[in-house]
Write a structure and sequence with these properties.
2 domains; about 150 residues; about 85% helix; 6 helices; mainly alpha
């Protein structure tokens, strides 16, 4: 679990770094290059909306997104550290953060069930169960040591 959280934290740090690298770039030009690279028609609705949206992104928005990504990454890396060192606070954090995604995944899954959504839901439920069981075991061990 710790390695998974560390991986997620690392990926988000890379994403934040990528966002910051775009602060002083011509985003509509980059969007146009991406559309051309994907062999999409820039006049079609979705590519056109993508290019127009890139034109409305401000540098301050990119910085805020990068800061948010960095904060999320730090949380994931702290959780990974805590799980690696078997800290109770990290187990609580993992259980709560995993449980927060369950309602979102259920809402997304019901109108259009698919294997990816089902897998994500199952993985998050397994993580929550493992963390809750680890916390319960910790509590039982503490209780038996106190006697």
């Amino acid at each position: 679990m710790a390695l998974i959280e560390a991986f997620k934290g690392g990926v988000v740090i890379l994403a934040a770094t990528g966002l910051l690298s775009l602060v002083h770039e011509d985003l509509p030009a980059i969007a146009e290059k991406l559309v051309a690279h994907a062999h999409l028609n820039p006049a079609a609705e979705v590519p056109r909306v993508f290019i127009e949206a890139a034109g409305h992104v401000q540098s301050s928005s990119l910085v805020l997104l990068a800061l948010g990504a960095a904060a999320y990454s730090l949380l994931r890396l702290a959780e990974a550290y805590g799980l690696w060192h078997e800290r109770a606070w990290a187990e609580v954090l993992a259980a709560v953060s995993g449980a927060l995604y369950v309602p979102i995944e259920l809402v997304d899954l019901f109108p259009r069930p698919n294997w990816l959504g089902s897998t994500l839901l199952a993985v998050n439920l397994v993580i929550v169960v493992i963390m809750v069981r680890a916390l319960a075991q910790r509590r039982r061990t503490r209780s038996s040591n106190a006697l």
